[in-house]
Amino acid sequence: MAKSKGQTTREKVEAGLPRRRRKELMFKFVGMLATTVGVVFLGVFFSTLIAEGSSAFKQTFMKLDIELAEDVIAPGGELDLAYADFDGLVRSALREAIPEVSGRRDRRELYRLVSVGAAYQLRDLVEANPELVGTKQTMWVPASSNVDMLIKGNIDAELDESLRPISDKQIAWVGTLQDDGRIETRFNKALFTNGDSRDPELAGIKGAVMGSLYMLIVTIALSFPIGVAAAIYLEEFAPRNRWSDLIEVNINNLAAVPSIVFGLLGLAVFINWASLPRSAPLVGGLVLTLLTLPVIIIASRAAIKAVPPSIREAALGLGASQTQVVFHHVLPLALPGMLTGTIIGMSRALGESAPLLMIGMVAFIVDVPGGFNDPATALPIQIYLWADSPERAFAERTSAAIIVLLGFLLLMNLAAVILRKRMERKW
Amino acid sequence: MKMTAMTDVTTDNQTPPTLTEEPAAAPVAEPIQMPQVPEQETELSGETVGNIHCENPFMIANDVNVYYGDNHAIKNVSLEIGKKEVIALIGPSGCGKSTFLRCLNRMNDTIETARVTGQITLDGKDIHRKEQDPVALRARVGMVFQKPNPFPKSIYDNVAYGPRIHGLAADRAELDDIVHTSLERAGLLKEVKDRLDEPGTSLSGGQQQRLCIARTIAVNPEVILMDEPCSALDPIATARIEDLMDELCEDYAIVIVTHSMQQAARVSRRVAYFHLGLLVEVDETDRIFTNPQHRLTEDYITGRIG
Ligand SMILES: Nc1ncnc2c1ncn2[C@@H]1O[C@H](COP(=O)(O)OP(=O)(O)OP(=O)(O)O)[C@@H](O)[C@H]1O
Ligand SMILES: [Mg+2]
Fold first, then answer.
1. Nearest CA residue ID for atom 26, ligand 1
2. Where do you find CATH 1.10.3720.10 in chain A?
3. CA pair distance A46, A52, nearest whole angstrom
4. CB atoms within 10 A of CB A84
5. Is A303 exposed, middle or buried (0-12, 13-18, 19+ CB in 10 A)?
6. Cα nearest neighbour of B140 on chain A
7. For chain B, first and last CA: distance in Å?
8. Is the pLDDT of residue A134 over 70?
């Protein structure tokens, strides 16, 4: 057919083939390189995170034989939990375990081996079992974070005494306790059941997890229906004119607005104007709703647009009304995409911290929030707070909290994949 | 006026696509001439030759114009469609056959840029009158599309969808009955009797198209519009659907767009030839194929215009 310079089409094609193959190889190589770099970065990230954080899931405990002296806990036969000196009981048990300590200063150093949590644990025990008063109980109580760090090898005993937070004497006592079989590392339940604390060995992420959960409940309850409804309206019902163009541009821009701006907006509108409580998951959820709405709307519109027009035409041709077309055909087909978009938005909301700073969720809150109006923090804020703390023991907890956060994100993304697989229909 | 459409030939199923610029269908066994595209502005007067009237008109289009934005796609077309007749719309690609067809059940309403003027009546009533709901109109004027487009639902639900939304069946038994008779009439029942729960999309292309026809007749429309219903089908499936049309035209008026002269000759009683948005010639099928009045019609059916 086409002949120029005496070459047939076939000759021309064949002449070009090596170059095409070279290009293909080159592209393959670049792609592989890019993937490898990404995987290596991820690998480094995860391995350091796990190396740093995994030890936080364990905690050092100390076995003490504690005398539940009646005259301390129940003077005059009446249980007095508020004023009873449980601390004193723990201390005397500690003195008993290491009898050679004498002198006020040494004793004070000795007392620092055990966590203040020991006294709380004792109180809880007595409260639950008042009949134990007057007996002697063998209990495992949390050691202080310095002992914990020493046992986990995070404090170098070879270092000069002035450079480490634990003295030579304390190290020797810990050695004695270890020899007596009184030291053990166990699963760190406190990390999952406690709220924040100034003492690392008592600090947990439950408060932050619950705060995040309440916020996400508010966010998903508001942003999914609003986002999907807005997307359906804009895609299927709104007239195309200058107004709808303006709205479209605005929504796309909103998705790109820095999140801290939403925090400022939330502060101005929800707290200053609507007088909602500060630091509350309700307000956090509202702010995150503003943040995720554009993401959900854009994803939902894309999902609606991806529904083949032939399905729409088929339904319209049968005499279905626009609403019937949308709810019988478009929505079922677009739902997987909408849900994926929603979960991506939720993941973003879960990991967001900047806007929450603006509405006071950065406070140090010990209590686990019990509702939407209780003061709370969120997981990423907790990570920020702990990362900011000087104690060595908070460093590993920071990593542990990051692992938990990533675990949640992984779960959500998994849910997105499963949902999509389940609901996807072929046409 | 652009003539690009001339090279854009949609081959029909009888003629496998070829790389040469041979016209798609040349039923008359004359030596094929290379398509020369004569400038025929003078011949496109806008007057329709032949006879746009028929004995028993059911739908009447009067002076219909369609614009897509600035594109004047249909120009002053007037045509009558009779009760119980099959009328074929033929013409080169891009001449406006689909556009005209979509006017008849107001599917063009769904295209934002489209604007329709002129009058179309169904059983004596203007379909554009205010109180006419397009939804109700489309229940009376059904449509089968060029590409089979079953819903991603079960075969049963595909056919039952129309009766359901229009509330045609009082109970499940009646719905079952409608589904079965519709599938039967579409010639599909035998093949799918035992797999009504399977998705409609699992059928073959030809079966899907018959499913779409079953879906359309399940609503019991008065007019059926078919836009190249056989363009994706093999000759056997095509023959099936042509038989079906023969049967259906005992009850319905059928308007079919086709690129196959043979098909037009086989199934239709009248033929309308469109060219660049104009209705050039309408007449009895025999007259059109044996003795076309207009030179453009003659050129087209003898294969001189692709
Ligand atoms: N949705 C649309 N928007 C804008 N222009 C359109 C649209 N549909 C069709 N047109 C234009 O209208 C003219 C007629 O198109 P139409 O689809 O009716 O042709 P046709 O005769 O059905 O062609 P074919 O045989 O290829 O299907 C063409 O010029 C086309 O570009
Ligand atoms: Mg067409």
1. B93
2. 206-423
3. 10
4. 21
5. buried
6. A319
7. 17
8. yes
Q: Which residue of A has its CA nearest to B113?
A: A240
DSSP code, position B1: -
Distant-in-sequence, close-in-space partners of A157: CB < 8 Å, separation ≥ 6: A150, A164, A171
CA distances from A172 to A147, A156, A168 (A): 11, 14, 6
- Among B284, B282, B285, B251, residue whose Cα is nearest residue B266: B285
Place of tokens 């079966």: B207
Token pair, residue B222, equals 């008065």
Contact: B145, A317; criterion CB under 8 Å: yes
Are the beta carbons of A317 and B139 separated by less than 8 Å?
no
For chain B, what percent of residues have pLDDT higher than 90?
A: 49
pLDDT over 70 (residue A383): yes
* Fold held by B2-301: Rossmann fold (3.40.50)
**Secondary-structure breakdown of chain B: helix, strand, coil percentages, each rounded to the nearest 5:** 35, 25, 40
Exposed e or buried b per residue across A4-30, where buried means at least 16 C-beta atoms within 10 angstroms of its C-beta: eeeeeeeeeeeeeeeeeeeeeeeeeee
User: Whole-angstrom Cα distance, residue B258 to residue B236?
Assistant: 17
Ligand 1, atom 28, lies closest to the CA of: B94
- Distance, CA of B82 to CA of B87 (rounded, Å): 8
Nearest CA to ligand 1 atom 22: B98
Q: Is the CB of B95 under 6 A from ligand 1?
A: yes
Amino acid sitting at position B3: M
Backbone dihedral angles phi then psi of residue A275, each to the nearest 5 degrees: 55, 40
Q: How far is CA A114 from CA A69, A94, A144, B34, in A?
A: 19, 8, 5, 101
Cα A12 to Cα A16, A17, B234, B279: the distances in Å are: 6, 9, 37, 47
- Second CATH level (architecture) for the domain A206-423: Orthogonal Bundle (1.10)
* Residue pointed to by tokens 């990570």: A383
Q: Do A319 and B165 touch (CB under 8 A)?
A: yes
From the CA of B70, the nearest ligand is: 1
Residue with CA nearest ligand 1 atom 5: B68
**CA distance linking residue A228 with residue B202, whole number of Å:** 30
Average pLDDT over residues B156-172: 92
Q: Assess whether the C-beta atom of B94 lies below 6 angstroms from ligand 1.
A: yes
Q: Which residues of A touch B (CB under 8 A)?
A: 240, 308, 310-321, 324, 328-329, 333, 425-427
Report whether residue B10 contacts ligand 1, using a CB cutoff of 6 Å.
yes
pLDDT at B13: 43
The model's pLDDT over A201-250, given as tens digits with 9 standing for 90+, comes to 899 999 999 999 999 999 999 999 999 999 999 998 888 889 988 998 99
What is the reported pLDDT for B35?
46
Q: Do A316 and B145 touch (CB under 8 A)?
A: no
Neighbours of ion ligand 2 (CB under 5 A): B 98
Query: Is ipTM > 0.90 here?
Result: no
Domain residues of chain B, as ranges?
2-301
Q: Which residues pair with B65 in a beta bridge?
A: B117
Judged by CB atoms closer than 8 Å, whether chains meet at A328 and B152 is answered as no
Whether residue B306 has its Cβ less than 6 Å from ligand 1: no
d(CA B272, ligand 1 centre) in Å: 17
Percent of chain A with pLDDT over 90: 53
Ligand showing the shortest atom-to-Cα distance for residue B5: 1
| Residue among B156, B282, B294 at smallest CA distance from B214 | B156
Threshold 0.90, pTM exceeds: no
B304 lines ligand 1 (CB under 6 A): no
Contact A319 B139 (CB under 8 A): yes
Query: Is the Cβ atom of B93 under 6 angstroms away from ligand 1?
Result: yes
